[in-house]
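Hey,
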Amino acid sequence: MHGVGRVLGMTAVLFAATVLCVVANALIAVADYAKAGFVQRNSAEVRVPESALPYLATLKLAGAVGLVVGLSAWTWVGVAAGIGLVLFFVGAVVAHVRARVFHNIAFPGLYLLLSAAAVTHMTHLAAGS
């Protein structure tokens, strides 16, 4: 029984991380669309043009919506959305490293971690485990 409790505990943690990933990506997408000051400053620092912000916001929002669809209906949509978010945030971390902007690299790193947890959770759901 101890092993079952561990699995259920991990499932709860991964579910919570997936929900947090949805909320975090939806909120940062709104900030991107609104061209919030901190978003503009960070984008300029890592040499991402301001004109790219709406497109990047759309990718983040699509990932969040895809995770919700995966949680509620079609799990493979959630898997695909999670993979897309992982790739997106790998790119964000690479952009920070390339620009040598390390003082706030924890933020895309945290989004990457949440996205990886979401992919793990969605994959477990899709596999029926």
